[in-house]
Design brief:
The chain is an all-alpha fold. Helix 1 crosses helix 3, helix 1 packs antiparallel against helix 5 and helix 2 crosses helix 5. The longest helix is centred in the C-terminal third of the chain and has 36 residues. About 90% of the residues lie in helices and about 0% in strands. The protein is elongated. It starts with a helix and ends with a helix.
Length: about 160
């Protein structure tokens, strides 16, 4: 059981870090870069990014990220390592609410609306970029917080 717990703990750190890095990269470079070009180019580029990110590697990572810290927390609790277990459960729950659910409820529907959007690119981009960025930044901050809490859980263990 300890080996499985070690594997899920390591996966938690790697996956949470990867997702935090992905959101951070969008916040500091991708979206500002798209905002610096013409709206029609930004719309086309973001549509392309949104299509290309839907690949097996990303989808596996996206779906596994909330599972890893929750599984680690549950495993630690079964081993009577309650402080560490609670930290990992907290990390996973925070990620589920502040990143996974935000992605599913806000960013993905916005991406779908941008994909389906018709009309002037300037209007489409103006309606999209600031709101999408705000929620992406929230996802990034929450992902980093989840990563830190998982790291604390590892230290407590």
């Amino acid at each position: 059981m300890t080996t499985l717990t070690q594997i899920t703990a390591l996966l938690s750190l790697v996956l949470l870090g990867a997702m935090a890095g992905l959101f951070y990269g969008f916040t500091i470079s991708v979206m500002p870069g798209l905002d610096a070009i013409r709206a029609d180019q930004a719309v086309a580029a973001m549509r392309s990014v949104n299509r290309k990110i839907l690949n097996p590697v990303f989808l596996l990572m996206y779906l596994a990220t909330p599972v890893a810290p929750l599984a680690t927390g549950a495993l630690l609790l079964t081993q009577d390592v309650s402080e560490a277990g609670i930290a990992f459960l907290t990390s996973g729950a925070l990620y589920v609410v502040g990143s996974f659910a935000v992605t599913a409820a806000i960013n993905v529907p916005m991406n779908n609306a941008l994909e389906a959007g018709q009309g002037e690119a300037q209007r489409l981009w103006a309606a999209y970029t600031s709101r999408w960025q705000r929620w992406n930044t929230i996802r990034g901050v929450v992902s980093f917080a989840s990563l830190i809490i998982a790291g604390v859980g590892l230290l407590l263990w």
